[in-house]
Write a structure and sequence with these properties.
By secondary structure, the chain is mainly alpha-helical. It contains 7 helices and 2 strands, in the order H-H-H-H-E-E-H-H-H.
């Protein structure tokens, strides 16, 4: 069976499926590897961009928040998500002069729930939020790549994933 651009799981003559099984791998390892192989460079780019952003956060923390390293991570929406993760949603919507005002209810529950799960595994709230954010971002890169690859081709999928990595607000 010949390898085609539209089927990243296709078997090549040089590495039959039995070879992977003879090495002691489970039968699902080889097709999974073949499916993920085109995505690995994209995940590397994602990792480089995220490390760069964390370095920028550390620099911002040093310049703006003194020596408090998690200052930028707990500002803005991060503070609300951490608040929901720690205390849940308020029973009554916050108001000011009879009008609704900013509050935790405006933030979706999945991210705080995953933070709580990671906290149960022994992470601090900030560490848990970082891990969940990085893993969800990597999964999003894979999904963007796969969607564009299925609709167009692998080249368009890679371009779409790189644009998503560098400009996530475009999605």
């Amino acid at each position: 069976m010949a390898v085609t651009r539209s089927d990243p799981v296709a078997e090549t003559p040089s590495t039959p499926r039995r070879e992977w099984q003879q090495l002691g791998f489970a039968p699902w390892v080889e097709p999974t590897y073949r499916w993920f192989r085109p995505v690995l460079p994209l995940l590397g780019i994602y990792a480089i961009v995220r490390v760069g952003l964390l370095v920028a956060d550390a620099l911002a923390a040093h310049l703006t928040y003194g020596t408090h390293p998690d200052g930028p991570l707990t500002a803005w929406d991060g503070n609300w998500y951490l608040s929901v993760a720690a205390h849940g949603y308020p029973a009554v919507a916050p108001t000011a002069s009879g009008h609704l005002t900013y509050g935790a209810a405006g933030f979706e529950p999945v991210f705080p729930a995953l933070i709580r799960v990671m906290e149960a595994a022994g992470f601090t709230a900030i560490q848990a939020a970082l891990v969940v954010s990085i893993v969800a971002g990597a999964a999003s890169v894979i999904l963007v790549w796969r969607l564009a690859t299925v609709i167009f081709d692998e080249r368009v999928g890679s371009i779409a994933a790189i644009l998503f990595i560098v400009f996530p607000g475009m999605a």
